[in-house]
Specification:
Distance between the termini of chain A: 11 Å
Number of domains of chain B: 4
Shape of chain B: globular
Number of helices of chain B: 23
Largest sheet of chain B: 5 strands, mixed
CATH topology of the largest domain in chain A: Glutaredoxin
Structural class of chain A: alpha+beta
CATH architecture of the largest domain in chain B: 3-Layer(aba) Sandwich
Strand content of chain A: 5-15%
Largest sheet of chain A: 4 strands, mixed
CATH superfamily of the largest domain in chain B: NADH-ubiquinone oxidoreductase 51kDa subunit
CATH class of the largest domain in chain A: Alpha Beta
CATH architecture of the largest domain in chain A: 3-Layer(aba) Sandwich
Oligomer: heterodimer
Helix content of chain A: 40-55%
CATH class of the largest domain in chain B: Alpha Beta
Shape of chain A: elongated
Distance between the termini of chain B: 60 Å
CATH superfamily of the largest domain in chain A: Glutaredoxin
Largest interface: A-B, 37 and 58 residues
């Protein structure tokens, strides 16, 4: 599955729709990502123009925050908490298991099939380790539970795209 | 009709509560039972989640750790009438973990549907705001100061002084900003408020607005908390419909409007000035203080910026009086703190108690020891920027000043327990790594020092335990503490130094005679 970048015209249209009165750059970036799944490069120029900012300023905000993506997400995105509470409950061993099971590496950039991302705290520190899989939150994750959830997510994506 | 409660808090959802709720509904239908399903918040007893509760004449009976596979057997046993089952944990209000707490701020948590305004008011909500509407703003600020409430985000600055400063400032627009960027590992009290009792936070913010003359409020929530954001947005809409918000707060001449802003995954935005930058739509870069946000805050206007728990505690102070709240606690730490027992513990959850309780009590009486069953070894208190406390320090009362005496911080009240398999040198290296990832980049000691710190600790762990390396690490930490504008660079050395001081053997160093004695 390939994700062509949105055309300049399509991006401009999305920016126009979300740049409502009083909306900050952050708000608009969120709205674009929520709709398209990422913030296309082609959105930067219309954003800068609409908000009277330089393109560098828009680029600066977009790349400062971990949440914003400049490329479409993978079919399955796994976010594993790597912070202290989850560390105390073996998240590093779980990370090794996930890498072995999926054949992917954490934080190694964009992949089409599966992307593994480190995150720092999902607010489930009494139920560590925690992770999300395509945005769905799971706590007390074990290797076996991960394998089951990962298989389910792959099946679900396959059904949607079929 | 039987009322059955299945929590909708994300902790319960993360363990499959939605599927459990569906299974209960369909099983009840199949058996022709008259069941009303209520999606309540969480009680904060996370180790029991999903905790399903059944209303009986004797009180609400709990069934813990309910899985979809348990539902049929629960109905077979007659759980909808509160009968015995291996998952039955008795009357929830009588569970010692809950019963022995001093729940002031969290008095209502998890009892009812978090979005029901009627339930909120029936359980004591809105008293505080109604009292404040009859008071003069100066009196409100004075009462808040009198209550002894200090900023619960970690800095512990007296909330009353902040409010008074904003009230005294002259400006055409003032703001109330709620810091809900709860990024510290080991903390979830803000999240629990937002998902399980959101009206309490809304009421606290309206009170702040009325007291200082601010007409707009923002709740800045981290993007990692989508459930909190959704619940708050729905609650704000309902509060607006009920006349709490808008041009006339509860029919008075006070105006207050409230909005939710979403963060985007930058830990440093939990620092108040970085948060304000982010709220303005910019990169979350720390501002130099002074000027303080109380005078030059959001868009340069006077701004009250408080943490979720601080604002959520305001309603009970005004409902029951400053003296009521002040009578809890010790020394200059007045009231209660929601301690969050996290990490390697058997019974993780939220424990609200007056200041003065000890770590040992929290870890063993409430936490019931480690989840792994191994001896606990180190507890990090106050988030990723807090120190690691060895067992010799577990009897110090949790009080801002008592902790400061040993160079530790109470912070937001989060405790992360590590067992004897932990490696504190690895955790120290991780602390530097995290700082390198999350530094906003404004201060050189933080931006570059964190990377150098990670390298030095790596070298030490590889076996270079020479005096030169250790001195280098200590001097680097000293530079970061003294040369950073905010706590990111200024406190990352706390976990690092405490790990080195209390657990030198993890760095390949000998213990000093004093450490051996301890």
């Amino acid at each position: 599955m390939t994700h062509p970048q949105l055309s300049a015209a399509a991006s401009a249209e999305i920016v126009r729709r979300h740049a409502v009165q009083g909306a900050t750059l952050m708000t608009i970036l969120h709205a674009i990502q929520d709709e398209v799944g990422y913030v296309p490069e082609t959105a930067i120029a219309p954003l800068a123009q609409t908000l009277s900012l330089s393109r560098a300023e828009v680029h600066g905000v977009l790349t400062y925050y971990h949440h914003f993506r400049s490329a479409p997400p993978a079919r399955v995105t796994v976010q594993l908490c790597r912070a202290e509470a989850c560390r105390s409950m073996g998240t590093e061993a779980l990370k090794d298991h996930i890498e072995g099971h999926t054949g992917c590496r954490f934080d190694s950039g964009h992949a089409e099939e599966t992307e593994l991302e480190s995150v720092f705290c999902l607010g489930q520190c009494a139920l560590s380790p925690a992770m999300t899989i395509n945005g769905e939150l799971h706590a007390r994750v074990t290797p076996a539970k991960f394998d089951r959830l990962y298989a389910a997510a792959q099946t679900k994506v396959a059904e949607v795209t079929a | 009709m039987t009322r059955i409660y299945v929590p909708i808090d994300s902790a319960a959802l993360a363990l499959g509560a939605d599927a459990v709720a569906q299974a209960i509904a369909s099983e009840a239908l199949k058996r022709g039972l008259d069941v009303q399903l209520v999606r309540n918040g969480s009680r904060g007893l996370f180790y029991l989640e999903p905790l399903v509760e059944v209303e009986t004449p004797d009180g609400r009976i709990g069934y813990s750790n309910v899985d979809v596979e348990d539902v049929v057997s629960l109905f077979d046993a007659g759980f909808h009438e509160g009968s015995a089952h291996e998952k039955n944990v008795g009357i929830v209000d009588e569970i010692p973990y809950l019963k022995n707490q001093q729940r002031l701020t969290f008095a209502r948590i998890g009892i009812t549907d978090p979005l029901s305004i009627d339930d909120y008011v029936a359980l004591g909500g809105l008293h505080g705001l109604r009292n404040v509407l009859d008071m003069n703003g100066d009196a409100v600020c004075a009462a808040l100061l009198d209550s002894g409430l200090r900023g619960r985000g970690g800095a512990a600055f007296p909330a009353g002084i902040k409010w008074k400063t904003v009230r005294g400032a002259l400006a055409d627009q003032k703001y109330i900003v709620c810091n809900a960027d709860e990024g510290d590992s080991g903390t979830f009290s803000d999240r629990l408020v937002m998902e399980s009792d959101p009206y309490m936070l809304i009421e606290g913010m309206i009170i702040a607005g009325v007291a200082v003359g601010a007409t707009k409020g923002y709740i800045y929530v981290r993007s990692e908390y989508p459930h909190s954001i959704a619940t708050l947005n729905r609650a704000i809409d309902k509060a607006r419909d009920a006349g709490w918000l808008g041009a006339s707060v509860l029919g008075t001449s006070h105006e207050f409007e409230l909005y939710v802003a979403k963060g985007a995954g930058a830990y440093v935005c939990g620092e108040e000035t970085a948060l304000l930058e982010s709220l303005e739509g910019k990169r979350g870069i720390v501002r130099a203080k002074p000027p303080v946000p109380a005078l030059t805050g959001l868009y340069g206007k006077p701004t009250v910026i408080n943490n979720v728990i601080t604002l959520a505690t305001v309603p009970i102070i005004f409902a029951k009086g400053a003296a009521f709240y002040r009578d809890f606690g010790m020394g200059r730490s007045r009231g209660t703190l929601p301690f969050q027992i996290a990490g390697n513990v058997k019974q993780g959850g939220l424990v609200e108690l007056a200041f003065g309780v000890t770590l040992r009590e929290l870890i063993y009486t409430y936490g019931d020891g480690t989840a792994s069953g191994r001896p606990a070894r180190a507890v990090q208190v106050g988030g990723p920027l807090g120190t690691y406390l060895p067992e010799s320090q577990w009897d110090i009362p949790l009080d801002y000043e008592e902790y400061a005496k040993v160079g530790a911080v109470v912070g937001h009240g989060g405790l992360v327990v590590h067992d004897d398999t932990s490696n504190l040198a690895e955790l120290a290296q991780y602390a530097m790594h995290f700082c390198a990832l999350e530094s906003c980049g404004k201060c050189t000691p933080c931006r570059i020092g964190s990377t150098r710190g990670e390298e030095v600790i790596a070298k030490i762990r590889e076996g270079d335990t020479s005096v030169k390396q250790i001195t280098l690490l200590r001097e680097l930490c000293d530079t970061m503490v003294s040369g950073s504008l905010c706590a990111m660079g200024g406190m990352t050395p706390f976990p690092v130094m405490s790990a080195l001081d209390h657990f030198p053997e993890d760095f390949g160093l000998p213990r000093t005679p004093a450490q051996k004695a301890a």
